[in-house]
Design brief:
It holds the Pfam family Ferritin. Residues 43-187 form the Ferritin-like diiron domain. InterPro entries: Ferritin-like (IPR012347), Ferritin-like_diiron (IPR009040), Ferritin-like_SF (IPR009078), Ferritin_DPS_dom (IPR008331). The protein is an all-alpha fold. The chain has one domain (45-186): Up-down Bundle (Ferritin). It is 63% helix and 0% strand. The protein has helices at residues 23-29, 46-73, 80-106, 118-121, 132-157, 162-186. Helix 2 (46-73) packs antiparallel against helix 5 (132-157). The chain starts with 22 loop residues before the first helix and ends with a helix.
Length: 187
């Protein structure tokens, strides 16, 4: 067993005395009320982050519509469980859209819900397949697109906006679950 000395690979990091937090400066900067949640310490490129989030919002909205269409148009008793899965995913995608829109507002942006150009702003595609296997495949492809898009967004944002990054990581985890669900349905 190691005695956890400084040469041990599992040694605990040493804490150093940090510069105290400048409470007076924070309080003075906090008086800029029009910026809402965006404080003077925000390091992200707000305009770029808002643009990324609006494209993600469009993607989530298209995903809601695709899953809803598949839910309502899939037929047959043998597809009852698959239809239920489509409906659950539609609800979760709607929740993602809500979180993204809220974050855009927190960053003093405007969420773009305009249906004109929604398909063009979305990373994923809408699908109007008629058979259940094609529906499942379309949803799996869309989930894989969302996963990669969120991964790239997370990478681009880096540590400059931890709140947005955290939200995107959580959304991406759900999209990964959705992809697994769709893959499982393909058998």
């Amino acid at each position: 067993m190691s005695d956890q000395n400084d040469s041990s690979p599992i040694a605990k990091p040493k804490l150093t005395t940090a510069t105290p937090i400048d409470t007076a400066a924070i309080r003075a900067a906090a008086n800029k009320l029009d910026d809402g949640a965006v404080t003077s310490g925000y390091q992200g490129n707000r305009e770029e982050v808002i643009a990324l989030l609006n494209s993600a919002l469009a993607t989530e909205l298209v995903c809601v519509m695709r899953y809803k269409r598949h839910y309502f148009t899939a037929s047959g008793m043998e597809n009852t469980a698959i239809k239920a899965e489509f409906l659950v995913h539609a609800g979760e995608e709607s929740g993602h859209a809500d979180m993204i829109a809220e974050r855009i507002v927190q960053l003093n942006g405007k969420p773009d819900f305009n249906p004109a150009g929604l398909r063009e702003r979305s990373h994923a595609e809408y699908d109007d397949s008629e058979d259940i296997v094609s529906m499942i495949k379309a949803n799996l492809i869309a989930e894989r697109i969302a996963i990669e898009t969120y991964r790239q967004m997370i990478e681009r944002i880096g540590d400059t906006d931890p709140t947005t990054r955290h939200m995107l990581v959580n959304i991406m985890a759900v999209e990964e679950e959705h992809a697994d669900d769709m893959r499982d349905l393909l058998g």
